[in-house]
Amino acid sequence: MPVPLFDSTPDIEAHWQEYNQAIQKVMKHGQFILGPEVEEFEQKAAEYLGVKYAIGVNSGTDALVIGLRAAGVKPGDEVITTPFSFFATAESISNLGATPVFVDIDPTTFNLQPSNLQQAITEKTKAILPVHLFGLPAEMDEIIEIAEKYDLKVIEDCAQSFGATYNGQQTGSIGDVGAFSFFPTKNLGGFGDGGLITTGDEEIAELCKKLRAHGSKKKYHNEMLGYNSRLDTIQGAVLLVKLKYLDEANQQRKEIADRYFEALNGIPGLRIPVSVTRHPSPVSHIYHQYTIRILNGNRDQFREQLKEKGISTGVYYPVPQDQLPIYSDLNYELPNSERAASEVLSLPIWPGMTREHQDEVISEVKELAAESYSKNIDN
Ligand SMILES: *Cc1c(COP(=O)(O)O)cnc(C)c1O
In the prediction, which pLDDT does 376 show? Predict the structure, then answer.
């Protein structure tokens, strides 16, 4: 029985009727761009997240670009961020003409290590961009403390963390701006591209609304260079359905993660992720990914062998952002991030994943770990 890395069919089948009705409603009223469902979704999402303003855009990447720009990031500014993320994080900074400055991660959480921030701050630093990677919130208390001390903005990359909390607060409601993605495989995934900007600041919210519509508040009265970046009404309608079941879906991910924790704890040659109970701050993890480490340089072979047994896995990310061609001349040395890139392996996880699929993953991972460990001992 092959096990994919992710499968959206259980969710779609469970709510087939509701999705159908929601989409048909949009077809009937015909307001396909920024229609009533987008506004309703923005309101419901803002309520859920505990923020004043939520602005729907085209993608998570655009949420970052527009959010950074609305927060005041300009060409020549520096934005401190994590090397261990999807390229959209640094790309959005560079696309604004600003410079990403990478600081190393905490090897236990895979998130930006706040104690590395101070040394990276210069006169040009304008903002900090933490990523709540794999659905685990970054250390926001320490990040906010430094940001306040140096008068910096904080933009949270929440692409993987819709519904995760830090000290009881939703991610995206802690910094100045939050940027969410509705890419179909994310925890709150649409039926196509989509994104959301959150903020408690009225001026930032107004600017985001202008920027997503060619720099205009009133049609054909364009005030500045903007973008064409709106959330489609059909996506708004789909996301309204999805949001209703988000807590249930995230709970299912947590239960699967708990089974993995229990089954894979203490296996030689393999490290399970930091569990929420061992995490230094009260956080909830929504397991966008359940990411283990395969030690001793065995990751790629391990992954290949799992594939042969029918188990698909992911490597997020094989190359840290600072090592990608457009930044590699800067010669960063960030050992925790480099090591993570060579060891991480994300296991299959999705809401509605059957117990049989979970068992299959657990038994194949355990068997392979035992085999490669005994081989290592022999050598
Ligand atoms: C997915 C993702 C993005 C980009 O979101 P898109 O909707 O695909 O543009 C940005 N940052 C992180 C960490 C992501 O995982």
Answer: 66
Closest ligand 1 atom, residue 133 Cα: 13
Whole-number pLDDT of residue 372: 81
* Strands 125-129, 78-81: pairing kind: parallel
Sign of the dihedral through C-alpha 219, 60, 39, 175: negative
Closest CA to 55 of 187, 214, 232, 208: 208
Whether ligand 1 lies within 6 angstroms of the CB of 85 is answered as yes
Closest CA to 56 of 227, 217, 230: 230
Mean local confidence (pLDDT), 255-266? 96
pLDDT tens digit sequence for 331-352: 999 999 999 999 999 999 999 9
Q: What is the pLDDT of residue 379?
A: 47
The domains of the chain are located at 9-244, 246-378
Say if residue 287 is preceded by a cis peptide, omega within 30 of 0: no
Alpha carbons 237 and 38: distance in angstroms, whole number: 7
For residue 110, is it left (φ>0), alpha (ψ between -120 and 50) or beta? left
Closest atom of ligand 1 to 64 CA is 10
Q: For 246-378, CATH number?
A: 3.90.1150.10
Ligand 1 pocket: which of 183, 229, 316 to mutate (most atoms <8 Å of CB)? 183
**Residue among 6, 66, 81, 89 whose CB has most ligand 1 atoms within 8 A, to mutate:** 89
Q: Is the Cβ–Cβ distance between 270 and 293 less than 8 Å?
A: yes
Instruction: Compute φ and ψ for 169, nearest 5 degrees.
Output: -100, 140
Pairwise CA distance, residues 110 & 104, whole Å: 9
Atom 7 of ligand 1: nearest residue by CA position: 60
From the candidate CATH numbers 3.40.640.10, 3.30.2000.30, 3.90.1150.10, 2.60.40.10, the one assigned to the domain spanning 9-244: 3.40.640.10
